[in-house]
Design goal:
Elements (H helix, E strand, L loop, with lengths): L2 H6 L2 H14 L3 E2 L3 E2 H27 L13 H30 L3 H25 L6 H30 L14
Antiparallel strand pairs: 1-2
Length: about 180
Amino acid sequence: MSIPNLMHGSPWRQQLNVVNHAILNVQSCCYFFSLKMGCKLIVLFENILGLWQIYLGYSQIHDINRNLAPEWFSSNTTQHNSEFYLFLGLVAFFCAQLLLAGVVFQRKVCVMIWIGVMASSTVAFMFYTLVIDCIPESMLIDTLVSALQAYFVGIGLAYHMQLERSENSDDDLEVLFTASAA
């Protein structure tokens, strides 16, 4: 009995095929935009959010606008959180540039690298905010941010699969026939 025969009838393989076909049927982002435009909007959102996180992390590390923070705010916790969020802001900003390059130049590799890095940074963010730095007041917003990041990764995956499908399709294939003397 070979490996393909073992995997052919398994239910998880059939469920994976159903998910694959469902992602292939996604044609728009937020019901209004195409996948390409949705990816460009994700790049814009990630750039703004990344720059904002970089600014906040930098200003907290270097005590810029420290008089705005309440007195009960612990500086050790703030600096530790600031360094982590500064790192996540840098990752988000530079990975958004990867997604932009993948969308503009239609490069699957750039989109796939973006998907991998954003999925791993989302998992790291969830682990850090829900396990290490568990603050009940920010639990809801952290969960919403994680869900939004997962949606963004899903849109990127759908765009990657659309690029792969358009690359492998034979719709644009043109065959030229010439008359030959028999």
